[in-house]
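Quick start: read one record
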Amino acid sequence: MMEYKGYLGKVEFDDDAGIFHGEVINIRDVVTFQGNTVAKLRKAFRESIDDYLDFCQQRGEDPDKPFSGQFVARLSPELHRLVDTAAKLSGKSLNAWVTEQLQQAVAPLDQDSADRASQAMKLATKLRQR
């Protein structure tokens, strides 16, 4: 995972083409980047974000911004009651309890991202050694 100006980039390696390619994942607009080394990938990621922001400015449009941190969840009344009860029993606000539960649910994704980043770095090192 890469971050620049609040935008997050997800990176994959294309073994056939011998390049890293990525996409900004925390906006609705499509912004992509690629590079055949980690340094070039980082540079391309930053340049893609800057180009996107410049393009939006030239068109007089607001760029899609990374998530605000707020979302609406629709629940059945019964589930809403159960979640509220669980929050109260834990001594937390509904917001704090839901945030904690969501953090626990996505914790494995953070580890997966770290593992993928480590694998990508190892692969980049091997490619540079060739």
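The chain has two domains: 1-67, 72-130.
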